[in-house]
Every structure is written in structure tokens, then in C-alpha cells.
Design a protein that fits this description.
The protein is an alpha+beta fold. 15% of the residues lie in helices and 55% in strands. An 8-stranded antiparallel beta barrel has the order 2-4-5-8-9-11-12-13. A two-stranded antiparallel sheet has the order 6-7. A hairpin with a 5-residue loop joins β8 and β9. The chain is elongated.
């Protein structure tokens, strides 16, 4: 009987030892898989997160939305006016973001930013208003010192971002989606040279630009630098009150 009890105890001990080894091995594999996933991404599945542009503390989960950017801008379907491409640009300041992790490589991103866009025209072309309708025109009688259109927006993104780590340790990311545009300010201005050498300034506030618009955007890059491009989905001017022109741009971002 004593030999049977010893044999049973030995069997139970060996079974427990094998189970413990298998359990430790399983836990180690799970930990290694998690560590490997974390190594490949800055996304942790720990709920939602937010970030601000002037927050230098490293976040466990972060997107590549906040930052400062510059883009050369253009206007599509611009037939009469002559856009000065070298002086047409957008300055972008993305202040804050709010992210929702979807997996170890995907984020949903929203937030708040601002876009200051300036479009300069040359060869005496610009905007004029007749009976409340905005049209581009070429002036053959007067000489313009400057002709420009200013449009300032608040931007609200709805983006899907993918990110991963490269073999050299850099973080690669690509994001795309829609940015909602809320107009904050708009003005058209003409500076006309007079015969006496004076400058006559003619400007129009709120030149039939709707309060809401949207644009497609695509951004990609490594670490804290990115390239991006955007294209406005709807006309810059209200339907029936201005030409059907749409803005686009290509630029750089410091995230």
C-alpha cells in the first residue's frame, strides 16, 4: 500500500510539474507576442487617448496628426485668372488629436487644427462681384500691384492611420480620410496702382465662400516627418454664386 501511495504521489508531482512548465511556456509565448507587437507599433490597446501639439511627454499611443505644416496650394478649374503658384500656399497648425486604437497597427484619429490659405493672382487677374455673383476676370485697363484671395479654416479630421516599425527602428505610418473644413475668415483683395502713384485697395469680405466644406487627405512618412496631399471635395464658392473651383495642395509636416 505504501509503495502504491508513493507511486501515486510521484505521478501527481510529475503531472503538476509538466503542467507548470507548459503554463509558463504559454505565458512566455504570449508575452513575446505582445512585446513583438508593441515593438512594431506605438499603439497600445488601452482605450482612447488624446495629445496636444506642445505636449513633449511621450504618449503610449499616438497618431501623426498634431504638428506644423506648409503646403503649396492650387485651384482646379481656374480658367480666366492666372494663379501665382509661387505665392499661393497654406500654413497648417494641428493643435490636438483624439485617437481610438483599433488594433496594434491601426488607429482612428480625429482632432482640431487650423489652415491659413492664401491664393495670389498675376497679370491683372482676380475676383470681381456683380449683382452678388463672384467671378474671376482679367482687367485690361488698370495695373494691379497685388490680387489675392484669403481663406482661413478650422479643420476636423476623420482619419484611419496605419503604423509599424521598420528594420532600422524608424516608425513608418500612412493615414487617409476626410478633413471637415469650417470657415473662420475669407477676403478677396485688389491693390490697384493709380496714375499719381497711389495704391487703391478694394476688398470684399466673405466672398460667397460657404461656411462648411470638406477635403480628402493622404499623409505618409517616418517618425515625426510626413508628406501629405489634399483635394477639396466641393466648390470653394457657393453654388450659383461663384465659379466651380476646388483647392488642392502638396506639402510637408513636422509632427
Amino acid at each position: 500500500m505504501k509503495k502504491k501511495l508513493n507511486l501515486l504521489a510521484c505521478t501527481l508531482f510529475m503531472t503538476a510539474l509538466v503542467w507548470a512548465q507548459e503554463n509558463v511556456t504559454t505565458n512566455m509565448k504570449t508575452t513575446e507576442e505582445i512585446d513583438d507587437r508593441n515593438f512594431q507599433s506605438l499603439i497600445l490597446l488601452n482605450g482612447s487617448s488624446y495629445d496636444f501639439i506642445f505636449n513633449w511627454k511621450e504618449k503610449p499611443t499616438k497618431s501623426h496628426w498634431t504638428g506644423i505644416g506648409f503646403a503649396f496650394s492650387g485651384l482646379r478649374n481656374l480658367h480666366v485668372a492666372d494663379l501665382n503658384q509661387n505665392r499661393s500656399y497654406s500654413v497648417i497648425l494641428n493643435l490636438a488629436d483624439y485617437t481610438i486604437p483599433l488594433s496594434y497597427h491601426y488607429l482612428f484619429v480625429t482632432g482640431l487644427g487650423f489652415d491659413w490659405s492664401r491664393y495670389h493672382f498675376r497679370r491683372n487677374t482676380g475676383l470681381q462681384y456683380t449683382d452678388g455673383i463672384a467671378t474671376f476676370f482679367k482687367d485690361t485697363e488698370r495695373e494691379y500691384k497685388s490680387s489675392k484671395l484669403l481663406v482661413y479654416y478650422a479643420t476636423i479630421p476623420f482619419l484611419l492611420e496605419y503604423q509599424t516599425k521598420t528594420t532600422n527602428g524608424s516608425h513608418f505610418f500612412i493615414s487617409g480620410g476626410i478633413e471637415g473644413l469650417v470657415k473662420c475668415y475669407s477676403k478677396s483683395q485688389l491693390d490697384i496702382r493709380q496714375a499719381q502713384g497711389n495704391i487703391e485697395e478694394i476688398h470684399y469680405r466673405n466672398p460667397n465662400i460657404p461656411p462648411l466644406n470638406a477635403r480628402l487627405i493622404l499623409r505618409t512618412g517616418f517618425d515625426n516627418f510626413s508628406f501629405f496631399g489634399y483635394y477639396q471635395l466641393f466648390s470653394m464658392f457657393e453654388k450659383g454664386k461663384g465659379p466651380d473651383v476646388r483647392s488642392f495642395g502638396i506639402g510637408l509636416m513636422l509632427n
